[in-house]
Amino acid sequence: xxxxxxARRRFLIGSGSSLLLTLLPIPSFAxxxxxxxxxxxxxxxxxxxxYICVKKxxxxxxxxxxxxxxxxxxxxxxxxxxxxxxxxSPSPEATHSTPPxxxxxxxxxxxxxxxxxxAKVSDLTEGKSKIVVAKDLKGKSVSLALFxxxxxxxxxxxxxxxxxxxxxxxxKTLACPCHGSVxxxxxxxxxxxxxxxxxxxxxxxxxGGDIYIQSEI
Length: 217
Fold this sequence. Notes:
- By secondary structure, the chain is mostly beta strands.
- The chain has a domain at 70-81 and 107-214: Rieske [2Fe-2S] iron-sulphur domain (Rieske Iron-sulfur Protein), CATH 2.102.10.
- Helices cover 10% and strands 35% of the residues.
- The longest helix is centred in the first third of the chain and has 22 residues, at 2-23.
């Protein structure tokens, strides 16, 4: 009889605890960033939330930015056209030039994107290429070629697809000093060989004027 009462008491206590846990709200803990916090002021996106690297008591750690983050927008990446050879004799039917296609617009998105800051939109000049150096989510320094056109930012690798040299800024283009390849600064397309493949492109997001390169660890 005594053993039966003990078992009954344990059952009632366990049932009451389970009911209490279902009724009481349980606080949710934010996922800690796995990115390397290497410099105070460094900012990242983690699934749609903004974090900043701060230094306290001599140690660097990530801190969730408050108030809430500004809206995140995605910048579309234009497709790079394949390299084309220049025509030496224009067609007689071509009496007027075709107007350029309008630049794609920036679109808002509720997606939980992640990435690292490469620069600010205010650092860029409309219609000109700019090469920047940033810290990726692993704390590694990476060079990127950015381009601003009609409010849309595009990002590409600075590694030439011919033999791996680093391209340099050349107004609206990116030029390789090794063998003369030239790429379109906005799309990364080949404008002049010997390179045959366009520059690698990266997805871009923007929040509060900061340009984020989308990336996962």
